[in-house]
Design goal:
The chain is mainly β. It is built from two helices and twelve strands; from the N terminus they run αββββαββββββββ. The longest helix is centred in the N-terminal third of the chain and has 7 residues.
């Protein structure tokens, strides 16, 4: 498979600069409803894992990561948008909510009550109401450029946080944001359901781990980071005039 085809198959866009490449993971080229194992982006030095609050509180087991199609509406219409699955209209995006359509977003799948009716499998994509921690772990430290989070409306259960760690095993975050901070809201008229928050204040330092912790429903819309690429690698041009990756 060609590099461009491989990237598209994993919902990845690349931009290049001298000695670096910027990777944008927006989940867009993966199928809506797909389950995510976390190693889909291993060739780009990234692994994603999850620890659900449901598992931590009552030992019911880690719930899987899954993709939810946020280009949806409350009801089936004559237009092109489908009905939001799992009744999650609070994850819908688009002009009605003051945002660009976000397409597929990453959720912790809820262990819904209809599991036994679906041959023991999880039903429609539906974000877990108890939230949890999604961790992005990098093989080599990267610069974090942008991160998006959709539908943080459960601060009555506790605050949500984005934490960036210099070392993979660090216990103290070098950078931390509160998810409820309105200064990062894209659509100011929606500070709960359908709210979209984008974070780009990580600075120029490099980080090996990024955690998003939230107490209730919500979804990750994208992650953009810049990583170094060694000369002579598969993305190295070798042209002394251009030297692109």
């Amino acid at each position: 498979m060609a590099l461009s085809q491989s990237l598209a198959a994993h919902g990845i866009q690349l931009a290049s600069g001298p000695g670096t490449r910027t990777v944008t993971i927006d989940f867009e080229e993966l199928a809506a409803g797909a389950f995510i194992t976390g190693d889909e982006w291993a060739e780009y030095g990234l692994n994603i894992s999850v620890e659900s609050n449901r598992q931590r509180r009552d030992g019911s087991g880690d719930l899987p990561l899954r993709l939810f199609d946020s280009d949806c509406v409350a009801k089936v219409t004559s237009g092109s948008l489908p009905k939001c699955s799992g009744g999650d209209t609070d994850l819908a995006t688009g002009s009605a909510f003051g945002t660009d359509p976000q397409g597929n977003v990453l959720i912790i799948q809820e262990d819904n009550s209809h599991r036994s009716r679906n041959n023991g499998t999880l039903g429609a994509p539906d974000d877990d109401a108890r939230g949890g921690i999604i961790t992005f772990l990098f093989d080599e430290a990267v610069t974090l450029d942008s991160f998006g989070f959709l539908d943080f409306d459960d601060d009555d259960r506790g605050e949500g946080y984005i934490r960036a760690y210099t070392g993979a095993d660090d216990t103290d975050a070098a950078v931390m944001f509160n998810l409820s901070d309105l200064s990062y809201l894209v659509n100011l008229d929606f500070d709960g359901d359908n709210s979209l928050r984008e974070f780009d204040g990580f600075g120029d330092d490099t980080f090996s781990r990024l955690e998003v912790e939230y107490p209730g429903s919500g979804a990750v819309t994208h992650l953009e980071f810049t990583q170094e690429v060694a000369p002579g690698g598969s993305d190295w041009s070798g042209d002394p005039e251009t030297r692109f990756w």
